[in-house]
Amino acid sequence: MRAVNLIPPEEQRGDRAPMRAGIVSYVVVGALALGLLLVIATALTGKQISDKKAEKQQLEQELTEATARAESLRAFADFRAVQESRTATVSSLAQSRFDWERVLRELALTIPGDVWLVSLTGTVSPAVSLENGAEIPVRDSVAGPALELVGCAPSQDAVAAMIAALEDIDGVTRVGVGSSERPDDSQNSAPTPGEQNDDCRTRDFISKFELVAAFDAVPAPPTATAAPAVPAPLSPPPGEAVPASAQNATDLVPGG
Fold first, then answer.
1. Cβ–Cβ under 8 Å, residues 210 and 180
2. Is 225 a member of any domain?
3. Does residue 203 lie within any of the structural domains?
4. Are residues 81 and 35 both part of a single domain?
5. Are residues 33 and 126 in the same domain?
6. What averages of pLDDT result for each successive group of 10 residues across the chain (256 residues)?
7. Are 203 and 115 contained in the same domain?
């Protein structure tokens, strides 16, 4: 006779016991595995965020320290810039220095004997303004140093000889003529009492001239620029090149 198992199926155990969990067990296991992965991912992400925050704080601290060091060294960098600027200024001034003493000595040696000057002005640039200067308009066309001469000669030929003499001075590149003319009848009249007559044309054959001797090959003096702050007190920045003082002469006779 065949044996019959009288135990209800839900109470049976062993290999032949029917599966009770079914698909629900797989769902639960999958949910647990997914939850575990999410926990691991969250933990890893949080750690990465913490590491990035720590790295950011470290970089900000290094940036602050570097900025502080740069600020402390800025004054020395400005000082170096001032030093280089002043060195360049001194070098430029040395190159643009004009030897007025030599020019006037050569003028005294070359001026014709029958020519006399009533005004002699020397400036390093047309921007220089001098009290009682000649102010010959031709001077504005010369960017560098120039001599402005006002005087008289017994004839126009003597004026031409004066121009040739100026061209013989070392460094003179050209000679400009502002005017060269004889007096008219009104100028020949005697001055009224109290009136000052600066005209050297005391005779009708005398010609009064205005000449400008240009030294174009000489560099123009540099202009000054404001200096930045420096770490220690320094002398004021050099100003514009001081022009040579004008040499004015009244009734100057060469050789006198």
1. yes
2. no
3. yes
4. yes
5. no
6. 66 55 76 88 88 89 88 82 83 72 93 93 84 82 90 94 94 92 61 57 89 81 45 42 37 36
7. yes
Is 127 inside a domain boundary? yes
Residue with tokens 């933990």: 43
Extract long-range pairs of 236-239: CB within 8 Å, 24+ residues apart: 237/82, 237/85, 237/86, 238/86, 238/89, 238/90, 238/93
Same-domain check for residues 132 and 206: yes
pTM (2 decimals)? Answer: 0.48
Rg of the chain on CA atoms, in Å? 49
Rounded to whole angstroms, the Cα distance separating 98 from 109 reads 19
- 43 in the same domain as 104: no
Residue 64 structural domain: 22-96
Question: Distance between CA atoms of 83 and 59, rounded to whole angstroms?
Answer: 35
Give the integer Cα–Cα distance in Å for 124 and 147: 9
Q: How many domains does the chain have?
A: 2
Helices 156-167 and 100-110, packing angle to 10 deg:
140
Q: In what order do the strands lie in the sheet with 146-153?
A: 116-123, 146-153, 207-214, 174-181
